[in-house]
Amino acid sequence: MSQESEETVNDEMKPEYDFSGGVRGKYYEAYTQSSNVVILDPDVTEIFRDSASVNEALRLLAKIAKSVTV
């Protein structure tokens, strides 16, 4: 082990950090309803560098799919 990992960590919170009135999971339900995280494979991330490019490609694909099935 390195010396750094053996050092005692001061995990005392400052007095101004008062979470006594906090509510655990207060926004959990809203977050699950509005968040949609998708993990892309590395080969796909080489093509689509950001969410805008992914969204653009998916919208185009959806438009093509609609025109073919109608």
Explain this structure.
With 70 residues, this protein is mainly α. The chain has a domain at 40-70. It is built from 4 helices and no strands. The chain has helices spanning 3-6, 28-34, 42-47, 51-69. It is elongated. The termini are far apart. The model has no long low-confidence stretch (mean pLDDT 84).
Please sum up the structure shown.
The protein is mostly helical and 70 residues long.
Question: Structural class of the secondary elements?
Answer: mainly alpha
Helical percentage: 40-55%
| Rg of Cα set | 23 Å
User: How many strand segments?
Assistant: 0
Proportion of strand residues: under 5%
Low-confidence stretches: none
Q: How many DSSP H or I helices?
A: 4
**What distance separates the N and C termini?**
65 Å
Oligomeric category: single chain
Mean pLDDT: 84
Order of helices and strands: HHHH
Biggest β-sheet strands, sense, barrel: none
Shape: elongated
